């Protein structure tokens, strides 16, 4: 790092701490700082990129850089400033509002005639063509006719738990424990019997999985191979291959929820769908966490024999997904904006997760067990004996820190009240460490009290 680069970073930090730059204020232009420090614009850009990686500033396309909310003078911040490890909603300054506004305006112009009617329940053909190309780049060779556009992944889960499967009469849904609570809710409302299989940071017992598959009682297996919510961990390639092979061997369908695929930093890591040789994997992709949650767009890649029943159930639910959201997503992907935004958030969350794991090692040491994901946004902490997650939640709320009880992700018979989940998606780096220090303090306080 050269001297000018260091000088610019230090100068901007001083300006923030002195209150000369306030939250939401625009920073000096690259050209102005280059003149001030007698350096090249590239040096200023690299300094701003350093501040952006440290969650001090954020860029607004075609506008400039701005100070992140809450990063004003130290005198304006207090120890009671809320730290939200429970929310899974990205920070507002990290969402592509202006880009999506442009795409929505363009979609209104392009699809103004379709606004007066209904579209194909599968989704508009131009979007499905674009999605087919997008998935091809990830080694998933689905034709446009095998893709169904859904109003968010949750709609896909609702349909899949309700619709008939070949020879499914009287069969149950198998889920990992823990798993995404939204799928559990969909199965519960649909009246599906649900069976759990234990999963930890090392994966699942494949012999136990085989015993369930060969029992004949499983309608489908719902799995989150990558960055499981709440553990944050992923299956190995060998585990995914074995799961796909068992599905073929015992004719069991798999629902693969790949909601954070865009955070995968290793381009050679294939989803289960790419390893499936027998058309037993149903792939569900959400765009909510990477674009805007309110857009409510997702895609499902279906085996040919399941496509018609899926579309019939979708047509009965909403006739067709919103045309403006579909058009905006098509334009966002086709223009290359989505690819650039995905690369940005992938790097951002990778660095943030690595930082969070370093903080865990420093604050918790070896006395408190926690998961160590390579990327993603979730970390699970297993509490010491006698410390209850619900009691810790209450204590932390009194100190303005929100966390999630992992029991929310478990079937009633598997709930132990012994783990909490931290989501780093909306917490800035300095606040991550501050929050974890308080969590460790409260765990130790409860531990002493309960002994």
TrEMBL record:
Gene3D superfamilies named among the record's database cross-references: Type I PLP-dependent aspartate aminotransferase-like (Major domain), Winged helix-like DNA-binding domain superfamily/Winged helix DNA-binding domain
Top-rank taxon of the source lineage equals Bacteria
Describe the family membership recorded for this protein in Swiss-Prot or TrEMBL.
In the C-terminal section; belongs to the class-I pyridoxal-phosphate-dependent aminotransferase family.
Query: Is Transcription regulation one of the keywords?
Result: yes
| InterPro entries, sorted | Aminotransferase_I/II_large (IPR004839), HTH_trans_reg/aminotransferase (IPR051446), PyrdxlP-dep_Trfase (IPR015424), PyrdxlP-dep_Trfase_major (IPR015421), Tscrpt_reg_HTH_GntR (IPR000524), WH-like_DNA-bd_sf (IPR036388), WH_DNA-bd_sf (IPR036390)
Instruction: Please provide the record's keywords in A-Z order.
Output: Aminotransferase, DNA-binding, Pyridoxal phosphate, Transcription, Transcription regulation, Transferase
Q: Which cofactor does it need?
A: pyridoxal 5'-phosphate
Query: Start and end of every HTH gntR-type domain?
Result: 2-70
For this protein, what is any one GO molecular function term?
DNA binding
Cross-referenced Pfam families: Aminotran_1_2, GntR
Q: What is this protein called?
A: PLP-dependent aminotransferase family protein
Tell me which SUPFAM superfamilies the record gives: PLP-dependent transferases, Winged helix' DNA-binding domain
